[in-house]
Amino acid sequence: MRMLLATVALLALGACEATNQVADTIARERAKSVVNTVVAERFPAVNAAPVTDCIIDAASAREIVRIAGASVTGVTPEVAQEIVGIAQRPEAVQCIAANSLTLLGG
Fold it and tell me: How far apart are CA 85 and CA 42, in angstroms?
């Protein structure tokens, strides 16, 4: 009986982990669409996709969820400012610089 309960508990934990992973993936994709739009509007001469990836990677889970919400409610000035703020973090700046060099063949 204990073995059965342990097995059921492990299966339930695995299902929760899979559900969390799906939710995270959906939130990141929604947030990427919002960030990509803001980057393209603010910096029209820049290839937005690699910059977007750097910003998403530098954002916390809470920030990603907040930004993803803007895909439904619309991008407010506060959300746009949050995105710009994340882009200014050292890890985002380093990532953007590294990707820019790669895109230029460096």
Answer: 13
Closest by Cα among 65, 104, 58 to 84: 58
Q: How far apart are CA 82 and CA 89, in angstroms?
A: 11
Average pLDDT for runs of 10 along the chain of length 106: 49 54 83 96 89 96 94 95 96 91 47
Is the CB of residue 58 less than 8 Å from the CB of residue 96? Answer: no
> What value does the CA radius of gyration of the chain take, rounded to a whole number of Å?
18
Cα 100 to Cα 3: distance, rounded to the nearest angstrom: 54
**Global pTM value:** 0.75
